[in-house]
Amino acid sequence: MTYNDQKLSQHKHTFAVFHGSFRSDVRCCNDTEIIHRITKVLRLSIGDTVIFFNTYEHSVCSLEHIDKKQISYSVLSTHATNLRTPQISMYICLLKKDAFFESVRQCAAMGVSHIIPVISEKIERNWFSEKDFHKCTRISIAACEQAKNFHLPKMHHPIRFEDITARKNIFVADPHGAPLQEMSHYVDNDIRVLIGPEGGFSPEEANTLTEFPSLRLTPTILRAVDAVAVIAGALSSMMYSADSKRL
What we know:
Largest sheet: 7 strands, parallel
CATH architecture of the largest domain: 3-Layer(aba) Sandwich
Distance between the termini: 8 Å
Shape: elongated
Number of helices: 6
Helix content: 25-40%
CATH topology of the largest domain: Alpha/beta knot
CATH class of the largest domain: Alpha Beta
Number of strands: 12
Strand content: 25-35%
Oligomer: single chain
Number of domains: 2
């Protein structure tokens, strides 16, 4: 399957830890941050299992030795982390910081492949800096660990709204759009969705978006951060169901 390996279902209560330099043929770790998380945050002990993952593979490991400078472990099983297809790309107009960071967390937990911030006319301000980019990456990692989503989303630097018009097949979240259920006809292909800012699109932007297909998520008006959660979760579920039927 292209989604979380069913063989890992027996480890659903096992903690997952992102280990960027992890290799299944190396049985120890000297990374002080990971050691701190294992011992002080997760409070794991010798004999406990943990899932280490990077962008290429994920392994179930049994801890054999722990001290302040090193942990060692045996690898019980290793699974390749194959490229997730089809992919979901979320174009999210810059929101207030906390709301945007929560949107990133939702996307990572739900299995979104690409997160692209968009600078539109009615955003409060363009606050996104390199520091914020790295914070989004850390938020994504934490969300993937919690959700046991071994496919880290790619975080992009912001693009301007004008750049959207050159891209094809982007669906726009709109309360007057087609029902979300109709997306089930598209889940065999990559899907791109645009979420507007808290203040909505400007008249010029809204006019441009009339040429794009639109989606109605719920019969109510959602906050942008809630719209992200609804569309990411629904699409991920549809893709998982479609993928299961092909097996």
